[in-house]
Amino acid sequence: MGYALGDVGLIEALRRVKDSFNSYPLGRIAQEGATASVRDEAYFRESRARVIAGREAMTRELMKLGFVVLPSSANFVFARHPARGGLGLATALRERAVLVRHFNKPRTADWLRITVGTDEDTRRLIAAAADIVGR
What we know:
Elements: H1 8-21, H2 28-39, H3 41-64, E1 68-69, E2 76-80, H4 86-95, E3 101-102, E4 112-115, H5 119-133
Antiparallel strand pairs: 1-2, 2-4, 3-4
Helix pairs in contact: 3-5
């Protein structure tokens, strides 16, 4: 679930693109639930704090393993390891049941997009990464 704010023309263009490939429209109940979650300020603040703390902890732990982690204000980080390629890391992590995103393009091939998850998700990621990079 997501939303966008912008000029009417921009939003209309986004709607046309979305409708051209989105075969899973949201029903009324899902829309009401999403609206309620946006209005729940306490839940938003709690969720935001959890994501920020998780991102900072994950970044610290990855850096201890020798990863380069780009600054992030999102619910994910871009990270790479100087001794391992992105595709090899993504594959090795997948073999250990840890899923990350890898974009095999010239500017991003060495990088992984790692989403902030639960504390347990982060522990699993770090343990698997440590096993892979030999730390």
